[in-house]
Structures are given as structure tokens and as C-alpha cells.
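Protein data:
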Amino acid sequence: MDRRLFMGAFTAGAVTVAVGSADSASAADQVTVFNGRVSAQSFYADGLGGQAACFTTASDANSYAHALVALQTGASGGLKPDGTQLINNGAAINAVSTNPDSSAMYLSGVEKGRGTLKITHTGYDDGSDKNAAALSIDLKVAGTAAQGIYLTATDGATQGNLIALRNNTGLDDFVVKGTGLVGIGTVRGDNPRAKVHVVQKTGSAKEGENDAAGLLVEGTVRIGNAAAVPTGVDGKAGGGTLYAQGGALYWRGSAGTVTKIASA
């Protein structure tokens, strides 16, 4: 199978053609075809104002071929003479851009059952990686107005979860639905039954896993006047509704009885 290098300029420390020979291009902007596998100790590609490199492949369920594999085989940096840890900062990919008008990297996909970007951190069961993270974001320069995480839907509202954090079995520890409803500790896959739905964890067989409270506020809580007097309660949870009207505080019980708790 031919391997094609689409490069305006190509420099390699040592290039080996495993099978066949190379048909050299007559000009720098043409294609050089290597009839076999190309092995190089290192290479430098300069697009000279155009595309520097293009890697293309076609895979199926049997071949499972990646267009590009970047593998960093370095080990830990070891110890300094004084016993302190040396850090090996070598990365598999280091993508850097100095163009202020565009993103440093574009990523797009058409997946149906996987993430467009899949990140896996292989951890240590002794917890020695407590300072590591699957995703780490550092906003440089004090005073920057850049956003840490920004999610939007430029073609209109979507149906799936905008954010879903799942660590405990059977629960959505934190979920933001496409409707904007927020669930904390709700049953996995259920729709929150309020703008913010918090479920206290109780009944766990393991000590220390129960929540002391569903909500803890250190400071004051402000309750604005309700736009309309509530007329019902959650049919599944029961209970009642606490609300303010005209500056006064009221409680409406499940039977419909309204009790004024505090005057305006």
C-alpha cells in the first residue's frame, strides 16, 4: 500500500523506505509517493504558508486504523541528588498557536455512542494521583476575561444533557438537562422536578455516606415574592411549598392549607 506524504517541504534525520522505492516529485508542491512504510528518526514539516501535513486513513471494524498515533514513552523524571522529585514534562502532543483570531485546535466528529473527545486517566488505587485530573484548565494572566468552560448550541436548543457527572451508582450526582433543569443526587436518567432538584442521600449501609442535609447555606437566604400563589405540591415527594408574597412568608401544605409564618 502506498504511503503519501502531503508536505511542501520535508526534512528527516533518517528516512527508511521499507518496501519499494520513492518516486520523487518534480516540485516542492507536488506529492512524493513512498511505496511502503516510511520510518524516520524525526522530521520537520514547513507548510510555507499552507498546510504542513495531512494524515488520512480509512478503517473498519476489522482494521481499527488510526490516522495518527502520538506515543510518549518517557518515564518519571527520577530524583535529584538532594532527593527531591524531578518532573518529566514531555507530552505526547504539544499543540501551540500564536494566532489570536482562531482556536488553537479544531475537533469535530459524527459519533452516535461515544464522545467526540474521549479522555481516559488510568489512575493508581493507592490514591497517589490525588493531584492529577482527567481535564485540567489553567487561565493565564491575571485580569483575563476568558471563560473557563463555555457550552452553546449554535443551531438551536438540544435534547440531551448539557452536563452529566456520575460517580455514585444509579445517581446523577450533578446534571444539567437541555431544558436547563438542574438535578443534584437525582436518580440516573430521571428528569429533575424543579428548576433545581436536590435529593438527600439517606439509607446507605456504609457509615459516612449519608448526607447530613439536602442543602446547607452558610449565610442568609433570600426568597423573592412568588409571581403567583402556588396551587399544588410535588405529587411524588409530597410535603409543601414555602413562598413569599408581598414580603410576607407563607407555607402551603399538601392539603392546601396556607399558613402565614412571618409578616412583611
About this structure: The longest strand covers residues 241-245.
